[in-house]
Design goal:
The structure holds 2 protein chains of 2 kinds.
Chain A lengths: L1 H19 L4 H21 L20 H31 L14
Helix pairs in contact in A: 1-2, 2-3
Chain B lengths: L1 H21 L4 H19 L2 H5 L12 H22 L3 H20 L4 H22 L4 H10 L4 H23 L9 H12 L4 H9 L1 H33 L30 H24 L7 H19 L1 H7 L5 H21 L10 H5 L11 H24 L8
Classes of the chains: A mainly alpha, B mainly alpha.
């Protein structure tokens, strides 16, 4: 299972990367979401140990590791906020540079 | 001496010119350089022996029922993400992205970690909604032109993506090879969640109580700031545009022909909505309120917390925006004012965390107000500090999401 999961996370990351590198800025935004999904899945699977039951005080048996879950909970929330901000930046780019192409945004060039 | 000084200065000048010339300003090139540097680092310092010798990496547990379900979820996630590359229309790509996120929620639920799965599911739906709103504001002509120019460099990018994929797979294997390992922190949380915080849900106890300050800063502050940032940025950009009086190239499709308050009820984009959908919207909002309340009250023993409650509520309100259109929703739900919500949330956090200090505890310490005042509350409902905290998170999330949905879903021409 671990090997398959690693392969799937790798594939998700590669797909996200490819989308991120495209010129169409809305596709870049999609890539960003896929990337953060892949990273969250990786962090969750890399917890200290595997659990059989969910992490509740009442549950009996091997509980799943609660700490990475709590951290990812916060990470998902923050990435949603950041993502909304990225989208509004894309909108401003489209309105000011009159383009949906990331290569035509050249404010950084020397 | 002078000669040496001049020579050094000239050298610095030349170096500066060279450095400036390497800055092409293309964001994609910068990204590629960063990634290649990362590959080089891992190739230099990655430890191959450690992974290949590990016995934690086995395949046989993929064959039982949960393993099969997990496999299905992972396959769905990867396939849907891949579809979002191949598909031509941006709207369909966004929907493929949404289904990929939901498949990941299934995988997370099988971990088993129901709290995270719930958050992932609602956040994924909200992400999809926000993306569709943003899409409707990027002119179609611009997107098509960017797409047409894309073809030249796609092979290079595919190579880069495959390399990145291999790199991350490698890092994953490296991390998984060391499992299971003893955890130092988790046992403490597991033993003390119920006695110290009164919450049976350990994940919820960590988020709201043990790491409460982190949640205060991260969830409430950052999320509110993001919402207000979106609002300010878009308002500002629009004002700049109006001031410059530039002709708009590739007119935005939405709302340029939408009359203010038409006689019939029309949804987003001026499309007439059917009575069935309208009845559904009427039913969905109160239901969302009930769901949110249950999640806040019983969230400390079950999956769900203030954040999920806030997102659920804002999805209900967002549905109204889609069905009834911008003007009518503003008119009907005039009470839901984003700035007011965020402000009251921050006040609630401050008040709720200072009250225990007055009543003889630490700042932000768990305190059960219901028991102290002898209120007749139903079983399982504690009017405690963490309850106030959850309500505050819910209000902040609702406020920030309303800012986001409000500004992104605003008909273009009404912005002053």
């Amino acid at each position: 299972m671990e090997v398959l999961k690693a392969l799937a996370i790798g594939a998700l990351f590669g797909i996200g990367l490819y989308q991120l590198l495209r010129r169409n800025i809305i596709r870049s935004a999609i890539g960003l979401v896929i990337l953060s999904n892949a990273v969250n899945l990786f962090l969750l699977s890399a917890g200290a140990y595997d659990g059989v039951v969910e992490a509740y005080a009442k549950a009996t048996g091997q509980r799943s590791d609660a700490l990475p879950q709590a951290l990812i909970l916060t990470a998902i929330v923050i990435s949603l906020g950041g993502f909304a901000f990225v989208l509004s930046l894309l909108y401003v780019i489209s309105a000011r540079y009159r383009t949906g192409d990331s290569d035509e945004v050249k404010g950084l060039s020397g | 001496m002078n000669l040496a000084y001049e020579a050094v200065l000239r050298g610095v000048d030349r170096a500066a010119r060279l450095a400036t010339r390497t800055q092409g300003g293309r964001i994609r090139v910068y990204l590629s350089v960063i990634l290649i540097a990362l590959f080089a680092l891992v190739a230099l310092f990655g430890d191959l022996q450690r992974v290949l010798g590990a016995d934690a990496l086995r395949l046989d547990d993929a064959l039982d029922v949960t393993g099969g379900l997990r496999l299905l979820g992972l396959l769905l996630a990867v396939a849907a993400s891949f579809v979002s590359i191949v598909i031509r229309r941006d709207l369909l790509a966004i929907i493929a992205l949404g289904s990929s996120g939901l498949a990941i929620a299934v995988v997370i639920a099988l971990e088993p970690s129901p709290d995270v799965a719930l958050v992932q599911a609602v956040v994924d739906v909200l992400t999809t909604v926000v993306l569709v709103l943003a899409l409707s504001r990027l002119p179609r002509a611009q997107r098509l032109r960017a797409e047409a120019l894309n073809n030249g460099s796609s092979v290079r990018h595919a190579l880069l993506a495959v390399a990145g994929s291999a790199l991350v797979t490698w890092i994953c294997l490296y991390a998984f090879a060391s499992r299971p390992r003893p955890s130092l922190v988790t046992p403490y949380y597991e033993q003390n969640a119920k006695p110290l915080t009164g919450a049976a849900d350990i994940v919820g106890a960590i988020v709201v109580d043990f790491r409460g300050f982190d949640t205060l800063i991260c969830e409430i502050t950052v999320f509110s700031a993001a919402g207000m940032g979106v609002f300010t940025l878009i308002r500002h950009a629009m004002r700049k545009r109006e001031a410059a009086q530039l002709p708009v190239e590739g007119e935005v499709e939405t709302a340029s022909h939408l009359p203010i308050l038409p006689a019939h009820i029309s949804g987003v984009d001026g499309v007439r909505t059917s009575p069935f959908i309208r009845a559904l919207a009427y039913a969905a909002l109160p239901l969302a309120f009930v769901l949110a309340t249950v999640q806040i009250i019983y969230g400390h023993d079950q999956p769900g917390d203030g954040f999920t409650a806030g997102v659920t509520l804002s999805l209900g309100v967002g549905f109204w925006y889609v069905v009834f259109g911008y003007e009518r929703t503003r008119q009907r739900l005039g009470l839901i004012r984003p700035a007011l919500l965020i402000g009251s949330s921050l006040l609630l956090v401050l008040g709720g965390s200072t009250l225990p200090l007055v009543l003889g505890g630490g700042f932000f310490s768990p305190f059960d107000f219901g028991a102290a005042l002898n209120l007749p509350l139903p079983k399982g409902f504690y009017l405690s500090t963490s309850f106030l905290f959850e309500v505050a998170i819910c209000l902040a999330v609702l406020g920030a999401t309303m800012f986001i949905v409000d500004t992104l879903g605003h008909p273009e021409r009404d912005l002053e």
